Amino acid sequence: MTFNSWQYLAFLPVTVLAYFLLPHKLRWVLLLAASYFFYMMWNPWLAFLILGTTVVAYGAALAIKKVPKHKKLFLVLTLVVCLGVLFGFKYLSFALNSVVDLINLFPIHVQAPVVDIILPVGISFYTFQTLSYVIDVYRGDFEPEKHFGYFALYVSYFPQLVAGPIETPKILLPQLKEEHHFNTEDLVAGLRHLLFGFLLKVAIADIAGIYVNRVFASLQSAGTGEILAAVVLFGIQIYCDFNGYSEIAIGSARIMGVKLSQNFDDPFMATSMSDLFRRWHMSLQRWFRYYVYIPLGGNRKGKFRHVLNTIIVFTLCGLWHGANWTYVLWGLYAGVLIVLEILVVFPLLGQAKKKGIPVDNGVFAWIRRFLIWAMFIPSSILFRSANIQQAGLAFTRLFAGFQPDGNAILGFSVTSLCYVLLAALTMELSYHYVYRGPRKSDIPSEASLTQPTLVAKEAVLALSMVAIIAATWAYLLSHGDVSTFAYFQF
What is the average pLDDT score of the chain? Predict the structure, then answer.
């Protein structure tokens, strides 16, 4: 069951209605059952996998608290089991193929064994969320949860189960145990997030994906302008696809009174690569910062270790996204750009500030934003390509030079220009009227919702968004272009 399906549109209101009708002491049972049902809709056997991970983490945390002198052993065992399961399902085939490819560089011929394992949906997300719980208990930052039902719900909570945001126990567990009452503010806030999420996914990401898929399916004959348009559109597509999922997750939980973490914070306004990754997939960046970067020493052990730790974290971040060298190179590329900022760009900006140059404001800030995206967007080729060979072909065709075409404008086909402009316009309008408003003040107060002018404005906006989503969804369904969320594969 995906968020952009008719099943979810029926599942969510039924679950919310039952949630508020049940007494508080039984709500965890409903949510746990609903979460497992939601997950088992992909494959019923997946329930045993997530249940096994839950049991291991639950037992390890209690053992850490009860036998503190052996707490490191219990932590290591949890890491080995959970990461071992993740490795087996996600990276085993990639590792075997990589080893075989390395051996075949020498005058030896070895054939890679066939490992046909279906990747469980969301395994990277709930594995990291589970590990954050055990690590926090190990560090003494969180008391182990004794109620198995609530902990199982923390691991499997359906709004953010398969693609995040990746939550820490401090944020999510107390909210799941708290008694929530239905109120208008949570309902309106949740619906706004839901509408914005569906608009991003259906009206922008899926529409942009039609053009992107078409170009990447015919790279041999695609011109530079077409590939450039596809790369720009894919940057918009992946943002709208993942932020769309995050917004639907946040909205689904918010209706029931639970506030999930923000996953994006206006990344298109970033003025540096470091700033971009603080705003993009924020829950994953926080996870790597707290559980990998800081334990490695962060920036506290000299410049060399600072650089090395940055490269390690971003390479791992790339590998987290998928078992493919394209993702590893994508992460490495991002890490190198951030290292260059640390060593070169930031010192130069510091000197410019001392001379009174307003590098953080006005036209200088917009120049920096343009340069950041000019460097970041080409890496989308690595993120989109199925393998290194396809990425190489895309880069070759991209830099082959614009081909003259009577139906093109500056090398861009009229079709590609329409796709880019439509996506940018829709995103800007939705971003301005929907995203920035609730993000800054979250939602109007209960009193303001009773004012006729505000209610009318809210209703018109909501109905307009529903109309756009419905029309686009109908078009996609009629052409068979409705897609799952990209981050489900991670």
Answer: 83
